[in-house]
Amino acid sequence: xxxxxxxxxxxxxLVERLGVGxxxxxxxxxxxxxxxxxxxxxxxxxxxxxADEADFIEMFRREARMSALLHHGHIARVLDFGIIDGAxxxxxxxxxxxDLRAALRHLRRRGESLxxxxxxxxxxxxxxxxDFAHTAxxxxxxxxxxxxxxxxxxxxxxxxxxxxxxxxxxxxATNLPGSIQSGALKGKVPYMAPEYALGHECSPRSDLxxxxxxxxECLAGRRPFDGSSDMQTLDRxxxxxxxxxxxxxxxxxxxxxxxxxSLLAAAPEERPCNAAAFVSMLAxxxxxxxxxxxxxxxxxxxxxxxxxxxxxxxxxxxPAPTRRPRKxxxxxx
Length: 333
Hints:
Order of helices and strands: EEEEHEEEHHEEEEHHHHHHHE
Number of helices: 10
CATH class of the largest domain: Mainly Alpha
Helix content: 25-40%
Shape: globular
CATH architecture of the largest domain: Orthogonal Bundle
Oligomer: single chain
Strand content: 15-25%
Distance between the termini: 35 Å
């Protein structure tokens, strides 16, 4: 039986479905043009069921508007946005690799955590990305975009050792009309700043708290405030109760441990004043010279490990099959 012909969506050929969520689906797509031009992208499309949902359409449009402001080396770029046959879509650069959540899971299976050199690279990259999002658009005008979901699944890692912060779909900008939301909390509870979880106004310092939880998890192999329930986790974050990083991960250089601990302060005013201030605290722990090569090697090992599912505690003796690298795009909502 011949393979099914690829679906065409406007100028795009949908090659492979990456996933489907509650309201959207993503694909590896190819956009072709004159003279043999060809570009592989990640295409995110609203599911037909929600094509007439005004609130979701507006959230999707807001994601496109805010993402269009963010031209930075450590932020996943939005390439296109539009409507084809009544379906809203946006396209993003396609990251050939994995995400930080999968990488940390891979390391936990091996009884390891991320080493301080790679964590320094992450801290510098994500700190720079947040500093840009919090402070400037493409014209250098303050944008004030707060991500609100800084977590490992939204940190994309490429086979070339690149780091990209993705998915500004629930972000908030103080100077874009209609961009401020109220109501239900958005984001993942284990990474959520206590002031935001308590219903107070979120701020750039709320993103810094989430970054602190993420970096602590990289080094310690677990999150700092996890409890037996979401309520207990939020209570621990609100009161600052956790094992200090220099105890949970003794091999962490003291300047790095102190900088990350400063992000985890329960009161926003006790955290660094902005992302740039946090990055400055890491001056004595720069990333190693070959860190991109090392991160690329980790990403490829994640891909190889994920190719053959194994039960916990059991080692596979089969050779890993040859397969195409996993592609990563935005999360689905």
